[in-house]
User: Fold these one by one.
Assistant:
Number 1:
Amino acid sequence: MAKQRSSSVQSLMEGLSALSRNLWWAWHTNAQSIFRELSPQVWERTNHNASWLMADISEKELRARLGDAEFAARVTSVLDEFDAYMKNTKTWAAANAKGLKKPVAYFSAEFGLHESVRIYSGGLGILAGDHTKSASDLGVPFYGISLFYREGYFEQRISVDGWQQEQYLSIDMNRQPTDLVVDAQGNPIVCSVQIGFSTVNFVARRLRVGRSTILLLDTNLPENEERYRSITAHVYGGDSTTRIAQEIVLGIGGVRMLRAMGVTPAVYHMNEGHSAFLTLELLRENIAKGLPKEKAMKAVIDECIFTTHTPVPAGHDRFSNDLMRFVFEHQVRQYGMTVDELIHFGKEHAGNPNDIFCMTVLAMKMSRSANGVSELHGHVSREMWQHLYPKAKSVDAVPIGHITNGIHVESWVSERTNAFWSAKLGPDWNKHFTEPKYWKKALDPKNISDEELWALRYNLRRQLIEFARHRLHEQHARYGNGTAAYDTILDPNALTICFARRFATYKRAPLIFTHFEKILSVFNAMERPVQVIFAGKAHPRDDEGKKFIQRIIEITKHPNLFGKVIFLENYDMNLARYLVSGADVWLNNPRRPLEASGTSGQKVGINGGMNCSIMDGWWREGYDGKNGWSIGGDEQPADAHVQDTQDSQFLYEVLSQQVIPEFYDRDANGIPRAWIKRMRHAIATLVPEYSTHRMVAEYVKKYYTA
Ligand SMILES: *Cc1c(COP(=O)(O)O)cnc(C)c1O
């Protein structure tokens, strides 16, 4: 008897340890709650890092905790669910992607999987992470390739005078859920790339994300020259020399690591141009096999696809002739080219002597297909790159398509909302959220009342506000200021607008304050209070973005706005989850058409929040007149100044004439019926469509198996 019990505790301990090393737990709240309960304090301190938590708990303590029969039963149930997930063979892909026998190799400079794995900076990474999780859920064989950023992306602190400070924290290797990739003998697989005169070695650290695998390449090895050991230290770190080195490791190194592991991908998917050097490595292989150059190139093109995310010409990665010469001089012959020919190949305008090598051009020329990330962005990309396709007689004939981005719904539903849907619709709601029909029925007022939905919204808003108070309290304690004022700011009954994203200037964070006196009176209407929560990081070298942050911080101190306009430090996936669930309205006001897709607005849908956005990116196709609000329409003045003035007026009008009145239009029970009707419609129309389940299925059908 005693023996059996100890062996079962043993197997639960092993199971928990394995679970902590697979990020499957990051989108299963029942698994998270087990880790959190093991030690709420370590869970908070480590930014919810399950493998760190497991490393910090002694075997003795774990044994004792698992001695509790009720707790052990919950652990068993989660482990069973995890097991069933990993072994499930009846996946979407098994039925719908029979042509995909080999894995997709998905290259991305960043992956946003969870706040505890700090290898992402913003939207591009989150998209890659959500893509990875949906590939796993759908059963699409998937390898992600990226870099192991030892110090990740920076942590944002705001100084007393409102200026962004960047802090880099070293990641403790033993506390990340990664394993070193080893060969059959158990020795680390070491590969190398050539950078200039130097050979740079690297290893791969494997991150498990459900059934998907991500390989994180790491050059921090003692045998490398010091300057090459730090190539992979920071996400988009350093100058262009560091960047090109990172991109050599990512692209060329990524292919070499896959080869060394014996992985043969069905397709190479470049998520943005950073990894486009992978096409040169494939070219080298084909030429080494004896193929003539034309055929070798054709074979590369047949295996590669490319997704572009940047509608601004200046936003595309480019490298100077000198840098290209330095890096490639000693290996370019293997591509059947000279350095000049290579540089020429990557030029946007072949005839222009001032033009330099552009990664997007390389990616487009070396891919069988290219796509933008929303309908409008597809169109903008066709216009932007028409000159690369001389055979295309019109913009519409340019062979760049689009697949609109989505989100991994289970990663963005808050724990509370998840419990709400599970209680109201059953725990298998997560198997049905892509079915519009399911929501139609589920959201029938006979099934869920307005009162219940409104109570959910209140609780989510309240939860965000308490989190915000806590954060601001801590921040002002750090300054040595009085903190008591921050314990009562924000009103849990007030209309709560959130604006959180990178502080790139085209996103125009301060737009809402353009007509300052007018907005001041809106915010201070006694009967209909409004509050706004801001968050976001500016790129470390973007002083204009930092000035926007500073301006918002200034405004938060205005005597008539104090406690109603706030800025929260260090926007990450954790803060994002609070914001996208607590927001009544998610505000998005970029300068059109610069928001290629945007995804944060998609995250509010499942939590009952609504979008108020410029008709750009995904919202231009998501908005149907009744599922949120548009700021202006399809007009797009070429002059940025004119656009800003016009849009600030539209924003003021939609808020004061539509959003605020509808939120405060209450019946005798205090319920905003029209608002909730809109909310139901938003969930039913947006959740099924703007998920990465839909998106990955589209990639499979349109691009991976085509
Ligand atoms: C979703 C998300 C983003 C991307 O948001 P956009 O709307 O595309 O700007 C960036 N950062 C974090 C932390 C996110 O969660």
Number 2:
Amino acid sequence: MRLQTRAVHALPQADPAWGATIPPVYLSASFAYVDPETLARVFQGREPGFIYSRIGNPTVALFEQAFTRIVEARGAVATSSGMAAITAVIFALAQAGDAVAVSSSLFGGTLSLFSRLVARCGIEVRLFDPLLPEQLESVLDDAVRFVFLEVIGNPRLDVPDIPLLANLAHAKGVPLVADCTLAPPGMFDPRRWGVDVAVHSLTKYITGNGTVVGGLVVDTGVFDWTAFPGSAVQEAVGKAGEAAFLYVLRREIVQDMGMSPSPIHALFHYLGLETLGLRVRQHCENAQALASFLARHPRVREVRYPGLEDDPSYPVASRLFEGGRYGGLLTFSLADREECFRLIRALRLPRTLANLGDAATLIIHPASTIYHERTEEERAGAGVHEGLLRVSVGIEESADLIEDFSRALEVLSKE
Ligand SMILES: *Cc1c(COP(=O)(O)O)cnc(C)c1O
């Protein structure tokens, strides 16, 4: 079966009690048992069951199960946000005294997490440029517990040679962790390219309608955790075997740090999964069409989109991504901030807000918003300048989007 078919049929029995076809929402903080012996057995893991919704909840479990089946992974753990998912991975794999190798082309929130909190916890953060494999090689030694990167760096929109970097990590016995938020199922299969742990912000494409915030950690099933040097996972191998990483994530990090999602949010995430394949296709087709239009427009200086043949990321992206899909995010440049603001005001369809992966097209001026507190050097590293605009292309009809951009660019010339 193919992805979109699996997505619709992931839970043939979502509700054995009454036959509901969609996961029932179990809005209950805790779960009662008729006798103390049963509760004790559930606590001791000798009988399946739920205890308390911070530790586990049936609706959340159904969403995790559905996702695991759709992408054919070893297992998945849902969290309250994408940032919580990344935090959970870091603390499951590393502790004070360890080091981690982290791409320098990252989402701003992730870069802050690594450079402030993680560094303060005594974990040494070693940055490398994901387009320069020799930089990763030079920071990898026995202290490093994992390699972290984004499949498509945001907002530089660069695509690293993931299988090559995975091989470097595996040669040192450590996993490759990839934030796959911008390259969701339907365009990129992390298992095929050596990604051991996939992280998603569910807030974006997977839920897909801009409703709720959420995150997910997926164990793709590639990595042999029994040989992993990190101490928390080592200790869990006796109890959980090859599921040791998932065990530490769920029973130590998410449970103890209180990162679990609401069951209502899990329902929204599940509903997004059913249409994910269709939406990803439409986002990518529209982004390709809009990128090609902008690249030909005389007012537009530079367009970055991995699906444009002259884009530096095109060769790698064409190898790693499926179905001629290159994602829904693009950036382009105008003369300066003033012109960017005028264009945003002239556009009718795109909303201007800080999110991506919504059904609607979104546009933002990164330098004055997401990057307003960053130094000039950090901005340059992320490819952000005063004339840059970032567009998250939605699932409208592409002809309407192109008409709107075309008209708004005309307005710029007239004013
Ligand atoms: C949004 C985003 C995150 C953070 O996810 P939240 O759900 O907002 O916590 C992490 N990585 C990437 C690439 C993102 O776009």
